[in-house]
Amino acid sequence: MNKFIYKNWVIKPSTLKHKKYDVFKDSKKVLSFGDKRYQQYKDKIGHYSNLDHLDKKRRVMYYRRHNKDYGYPSADWFSKKFLW
CA 12 to CA 45: how far, in whole Å? Predict the structure, then answer.
């Protein structure tokens, strides 16, 4: 998998050591999200689906810890949309 396109965003595997994905808009890097060292509920992009745990209780606990809405676009928003 090389890239994933969502609306006008291009999402690619990150070049940073511990990040899962980089987000680009108009060929400029906007942000990075996800951490390779941790699992997620379901990777909807698919590159890190080997780290899916599909545990609904863990998903609920994640949302309790991350209950603030940082808006769109933010690493929080992309994580919730594509990983949790």
Answer: 9
pTM here is: 0.90
Per-residue pLDDT of the chain (84 residues; tens, 9 = 90+): 589 999 999 999 999 999 999 999 999 999 999 999 999 999 999 999 999 999 999 999 999 999 888 888 899 999 999 999
Asked if 82 and 45 touch (Cβ cutoff 8 Å), the reply is yes
Per DSSP, the residues of 3-45 read: -EEETTEEEEE-SSSSEEEEEEETTEEEEEEEETTS-BS--SS
Task: Return the SS3 of 39.
Answer: coil
Domain boundaries, the chain: 4-82
Alpha helix segments (H runs only) across 1-84: 56-65, 75-82
